[in-house]
Each structure stands twice: as C-alpha cells, then as structure tokens.
Amino acid sequence: MSVRTVSHLKKGEKGVIKSITDKTMSLKLLEMGCLPGSEVRLDAVAPFGDPICINVGGWYCLSLRLNEAAVIEIE
C-alpha cells in the first residue's frame, strides 16, 4: 500500500491528515493548523500546478508549494 500525501489529491478530493514526515517543516505546518486528524480538501491549483490551495478543517484556505504538501500524509 502506497503512502498518500496532500500533493496526490485531485481538485475537490478530501483526506484526513495522518502525520507530517518532515521534522523541520512540521512545526511550521502545525502552526498553520495542519494537525493530525484534520480534514483537508484541495480547492485550487495554480495554472502550472504549483502552488495549491487546500481548505483545512473547513475553516480556511492555505496555499502550499507541492514540496510542502508532499510531507503531509493523509488517509
């Protein structure tokens, strides 16, 4: 079974955050509300595919680069 991350989501698709794999980026993402158990939905993708806009917990939209989204594991 392969690991899915936020960078694998298609527009409108949802996932629940399982963990953050990059220790250096984890504090930044946690402070921005990307907490384990939070639901995320991919809302928008820039014309060239990077950055993306995700909705976190139904509260707000967060813009992330694909390399940042790739460290957020979802289920």
UniProtKB/TrEMBL annotation:
Claim: NADP is one of the keywords in the record: no
Keywords: Iron
Ferrous iron transporter FeoA-like domain sequence ranges: 4-75
Gene3D superfamilies in alphabetical order: 2.30.30.90
Taxonomy, superkingdom: Bacteria
SMART domains for the chain: FeoA (SM00899)
Signal peptide: none
UniProt entry tagged with the keyword Acyltransferase: no
Name listed for the protein in its UniProt record: Ferrous iron transport protein A
